[in-house]
């Protein structure tokens, strides 16, 4: 938790310039004394943190220090990928689709290798074609199975039970669907029935 807060302080100082300890405390929802301890820890770690005392003072990075966006947890990288690639009706309505694609490509390219790979992976696993979502707990369960690459049993414990290898979760103008790697067919949410999320991993088939 503290490591994530230290990284956030670093990024705030980098992107916004000088900040007071009160501003940082309000942003991160911690006590001012916590910010001061964090600043001491960052200084001890060798980061060029400069603290200005008195009126107009504050905390800033020295020597034009810059850092790339590192330290993202796996779920944070996945969330970032979905944010960057999700279809946004407002962008289309304003005729900014091409600009959005260019900006998306630049942002993804600016990420460190590990984070960029995580973003690329999640954009291949999930497809969103509208801005609304279906509030069904099975969707979240299926998304976890897609990300983990584990076998799922649809219509569990019924004569029509079906075992699938889910590789893509899609939301279109009608409903959610999941793509089975074995058959490449899309199975709509209405046909899922009760789910059983297995811990058994499967190997995704090679393209072609």
Summarize the structure.
This protein is an alpha+beta fold and 208 residues long. The chain has helices at 2-16, 21-28, 32-44, 74-85, 89-93, 97-109, 113-125, 137-148, and strands at 49-52, 58-61, 126-128, 150-154, 162-164, 166-171, 176-180, 186-188, 196-201.
What can you tell me about this protein's structure?
- With 208 residues, the protein is α+β, with helices and mostly antiparallel strands.
- The chain has three domains: 2-61, Arc Repressor Mutant, subunit A, CATH 1.10.10; 74-124, no CATH class; 137-201, SH3 type barrels.
- The protein has eight helices and nine strands.
- It has a four-stranded mixed β-sheet with strand order 3-6-7-8. It has a three-stranded antiparallel β-sheet with strand order 5-4-9, covered by helices on one side.
Topology:
Layout: H1 2-16, H2 21-28, H3 32-44, E1 49-52, E2 58-61, H4 74-85, H5 89-93, H6 97-109, H7 113-125, E3 126-128, H8 137-148, E4 150-154, E5 162-164, E6 166-171, E7 176-180, E8 186-188, E9 196-201
Parallel strand pairs: 3-6
Antiparallel strand pairs: 1-2, 4-5, 4-9, 6-7, 7-8
Helix pairs in contact: 2-3, 4-7
Distance between the termini: 43 Å
Task: Please write the string of helix (H) and strand (E) elements.
Answer: HHHEEHHHHEHEEEEEE
Largest sheet descriptor: 4 strands, mixed
How many domains? 3
CATH class of the largest domain: Mainly Beta
Structural class: alpha+beta
Strand runs, count = 9
Helix content: 40-55%
